Amino acid sequence: MPVKYRIVKELDLVWTTWDGVVTVEDGLRHNALLRADPDFHPGMRQLSDARGAESAVSEPDIRGLARRSAFGPESRRAILVSDDALFGVSRMYESRAQTAGEVRVFRRLSEALDWLEIDGPTRQSYGLSDDADS
């Protein structure tokens, strides 16, 4: 499965990892799993690490995913990407996800974590240290 997630309750964070070719069905399945998870609530922050992903999602699919997000308007979500194509797709999602909280796209882990307000010692204790930026 190209999408995995972990809820870190102490940080009120969903840590999602996207790997390989990601389809709209993968995104919809991820939303459904989150909604069914008893530890999830729509106001959580999200670190969505898509550095290992390739998108197979069209512009209409992006709109549909943004409308069906499990996250609410009070959430803050960072999407981490490493290439130009995924950056463009993620920015498209960012512009359409207005009801799914604040969404921002980043190329550097440290910047995404700063925006999510996750401090240095916390990053290290959860394996989110800046040296993973490379």
Estimated share of beta-strand residues: 25-35%
Order of helices and strands: EEHEHEHEHH
Q: Note the total helix count.
A: 5
Distance between the termini: 25 Å
Return the average pLDDT rounded to an integer.
87
Strand sequence of the main sheet, in spatial order? 1-2-3-4-5
Structural class: alpha/beta
Major sheet: 5 strands, mixed
The coarse silhouette is globular
Proportion of helical residues: 25-40%
- Provide the low-confidence segments as ranges: none
Radius of gyration: 14 Å
Number of E-state strands: 5
Please give a quick description of this structure.
By secondary structure, the protein is an alpha/beta fold. The protein has helices at residues 24-36, 59-67, 84-96, 109-115, 120-125; strands spanning 3-8, 13-22, 45-55, 76-80, 102-106. Helix 1 links the parallel strand 2 and strand 3.
Describe the structure.
By secondary structure, the chain is of the alpha/beta class. Helices cover 36% and strands 28% of the residues. The chain has 5 helices and 5 strands, in the order E-E-H-E-H-E-H-E-H-H. It has helices spanning 24-36, 59-67, 84-96, 109-115, 120-125; strands spanning 3-8, 13-22, 45-55, 76-80, 102-106. A 5-stranded mixed sheet has the order 1-2-3-4-5, sandwiched between helices. The longest helix has 13 residues, at 24-36. The protein is globular. The relative contact order is 0.16. The model has no long low-confidence stretch (mean pLDDT 87).
